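**User:**
My hope is that you can spare some time for a protein that puzzles me. This is the protein in question:
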Amino acid sequence: MIEASWKLLQELWEYLKANFDPVWGTLDILIITFGLYWLLLLIRGTRSVQILVGLIVLLAASLASEIFDLSTLGMILDKFLGSAVLIIIVLFQHEIRRALARVGRGFFPTVTPHEESQMVEEVVRAGQTLSQRRVGALIVLEREMILDDQIEAGTPVDAAVSKELLTSIFLPYSPLHDGAVVIQRGRVAYAGCILPLTLRDDLPDGLGTRHRAAVGITEETDAVVVVVSEETATISVVMGSELLQDLDAPRLRVVLRDIMSGKRRDLSTRVDVSREVELRSARDARDEPSKVTETRPAQAGKR
């Protein structure tokens, strides 16, 4: 084993001496490192991490079969890993689409920051109103990953996001109130959608079909989901198959704005969110006197 490892290191060193250019080689390594880091951030918190660990274990087993001369195991793994490119494309097809979509949206953004902030505000107002009326709701906000493949039996809407529209969709007499509303590119794209349900059995007690659907869609995509419980009138946010429950309007606003702007990659505890709300409220209160002071000289000049 030691002789084989030493021989492998010698071959690697001879290859680097003959082919490695200090400038371009270093640049090449930095580009590859950045690309791998970006891909790891992309799949963090998804099932793809488990698949990636499985592939790494298979590669390690293949290397061990060569070191210890396990011919049968090595032959089986070589046959399997010989189609590694096709395996990676099939297993990581959602992540590949998500990465390409993120690159494309970086060059051609579809929603401006102002439109995104306005959309979040309308969702927060709708969630607050529905919670006060004890009306259940399920609102899915698309992010980088396209949701078309995860949506079944949805009714196309293509309307601007507003509190009035979202509230009217989920009222009990609406024919679309049982399904989910999907918001894509800053607009209400579909209503009455059927989402995949999670198979997890470790969810908190008392969660119904809406919460299971919210967890299910976030297991497969990077979407963020707002759930209003009909039984308890509580508001929850689901992302990456994690739930953050018992949110009021200010906390929901903070969470959604941070998620949609990219500041938040996972769901903090409710205490952390409460602290953020208090800090922002204090900052807004501190900035308010300066705004009033700036407004008064302008008004005096007009007189």
